[in-house]
Structure formats: C-alpha cells, structure tokens
Amino acid sequence: MQENEIKTGFFQRLKEGLSKTRAAFIGNIDQLFSGKKVIDQALLEELEEILITADVGPAFTLELIEKVRVKASRNELVDPAAVKEILKGHIREILDRCSSPLVIPGNGLFTILVVGVNGTGKTTTVGKIAHNLKDQGLTPVLVAADTFRAAAIEQLEAWSGRAGVLLVKQRAQADPSAVVFDALKSASAIKADVLLIDTAGRLHTKVNLMEEIKKMKRIMARELPGAPHEVLLVLDATSGQNAVAQAGMFRQDAGVTGLVLTKLDSTSKGGVIIRIARELQIPIRYIGVGEGIGDLKNFTSEEFVNALFKND
Question: Looking at the DSSP assignment, which residues form a beta bridge with residue 141?
Fold first, then answer.
C-alpha cells in the first residue's frame, strides 16, 4: 500500500472516530448559526455554553468569545457562519503548539516510561507503539513493570507476540524496578533501539504509585545516563475533565514529557484535547481512534482539525 493511501485510510478512520465529538461540538455550533443573521450577545452566550459543554475549557472559551466580540465590533464578520472559521483557526493555533510526534534519535537505546491510571488503555497503547516502531524498522523491547496485576503481564505478553517483539517480565508482585533493571541489561545486550516500559496505575494509592515511578526513573538514570528519555502519559478521552486533572497530576509528580490520548472514537468529549493543549502545553505524541493495531497514530494538529470539521 502506498504511503498516501495509508494516510488517507487513517484520516478516514480519524474522521469517523471524531463523529461523536463533531456531532456534539461542531454540529451544535452549526445549529446555533443556522438562520442567524447577526452576532449579538444572545448568540455569544449560546456559543459560550456550547464550548463549555464540549470540554474545551474556560480559558479557550473566553479567548474565542473575546476574539469574536472584537472582530464583530470592528465589523470584520460578515455573518455568524464566519465565526466557525475563527473557531477552526483558534483550535489549530492552540493544537499547533503541542503537535509534536515522538522522534527516536537512533543513537543508542531510547527509553520510554509509559504511565497513567488503570483503564486508560495503557498496556494496549504500549503494544501498539511497539508495532508502529517495528514497522519503522526499529527493534523495540517491551517491559512488563506493572507487576501489581497479573492480567497486565499476560496482556502485554499477548501484545509482544502480536507485534513480534521481545518481552522482559518477572512474576506478579515482583519489584517493578528490578524488572526495569533486567530489561535495560537485556535490551542493551541485543542492541535494541527502544525500551517501552508499562507501569502500574493504581490511582487510589497515588503516593505509592508515584514513589514507585520515581524509583524506576532513578534506576534507569543510574544504569543509562539520560534515561528515561520520554515519560509518556496515556489519557482516556472519554474521561473528559478527569483527563485534564490526571495530566496535571502526572506532570507534577512523574515529569511527563508527552501525551497519548486514547478512545477518541468512543466519546463526544474529544474537545478535551484542546483544553489539555491550552492549559498544560504538554506535547501530544499519539492519538487512538479504535481497537485495531493500526489505530494509534502520530498526532498532527492539521489532520485532527480537518477531520473534526469535515462533514462529508
């Protein structure tokens, strides 16, 4: 399959995956503007309500409403429908700041610590990233450091088989840092390109969880200077505002350097990606729009915004 065909195929899946968000967000805006001939205070208040409901966040909403109000006062808007173009441009401007796909330098072992609460699709995401990296001609190694759940180890083992990559694991309840230590030695021995580490996500024991992550980071830095090179946080888009809170918490406690937003196809709250970008300004590496092994792709703001606003 040609590269442009692959891109077209994923764009179609992205467009379909954002259908619920498009209906609840852009669809409501289209309905608001239908038949309206002037931009007045009542229209701005209704627009503000739609934006808040779409989980794009108060900061983004206030910025957009102010932009529209200023342009309307200068008679720069011909009709309410023109507001949609301002919205599209402002979303693109915000997302551009965080559109930063993950780059593997290729000058030695690159380590990725994958964090997030249970239920976000973290283990599945690790497997899909491994698949993507192998498709790029790289040699990834998976690490089952979520030893708290035997099911997580089994799930990652299944993904390692599916992606055809090496898995480093120990028994359930083993020390996660010991697993990571062994994995660093194994990956270095086979001259692997990338080490992908799946970690536990027990939010109800936040202090223990964060201490565990910090310990793993210390072990990694000791054994391989500069490691971990990436701390990747996996967020579930269906959780809406909770995803924003999780991102803030993990950034503070775990030093998150990049984000993955999963399950965009299962929610009308996909607008939360705009809020995360606006308020936290953490690079967005990947987005997921399905359960398939190929449904996790590099995030690009242009592609996302075009898919969000494309109705045909």
Answer: 166, 195
Cα separation, 25 vs 50, whole angstroms: 7
Nearest-angstrom CA–CA distance, 199 and 115: 6
Residue-wise pLDDT tens digits, 125-183: 999 999 999 999 999 999 999 998 899 999 999 999 999 999 999 999 999 999 999 99
Cβ–Cβ under 8 Å, residues 301 and 96: yes
Q: Is the dihedral of CA 248, 251, 256, 258 positive or negative?
A: positive
Q: Is the pTM of this model over 0.90?
A: yes
H or E element that contains 48: helix 41-53
DSSP for 83-98, written as a single string = HHHHHHHHHHHHHHTT
Residue 86 backbone phi and psi in degrees, to 5: -65, -45
- Phi, psi angles (nearest 5°) of residue 55: 65, 25
Q: How far is CA 61 from the centre of its chain?
A: 21
Q: How far apart are CA 105 and CA 108, in angstroms?
A: 8
Check if the beta carbon of residue 108 is closer than 8 Å to that of residue 191.
no
Strands (E), 227-280: 230-236, 258-262
Q: What is the pLDDT of residue 48?
A: 95
- Angle formed at CA 55 by CA 50 and CA 61, multiple of 5 degrees: 60
How far is Cα 17 from Cα 20, in angstroms, rounded to an integer? 7
Gap between the Cα atoms of 148 and 118, Å rounded: 11
Q: What angle do CA 256, 192, 166 make, to 5 degrees?
A: 90
Contact criterion met (CB below 8 Å) for 263 and 224: no
**Which SS3 state, helix, strand or coil, does residue 35 take?**
coil
Which of 35, 27, 42, 49 minimizes the C-alpha distance to 79?
35
- The 10s digit of each residue's pLDDT in 102-111 is 999 989 999 9
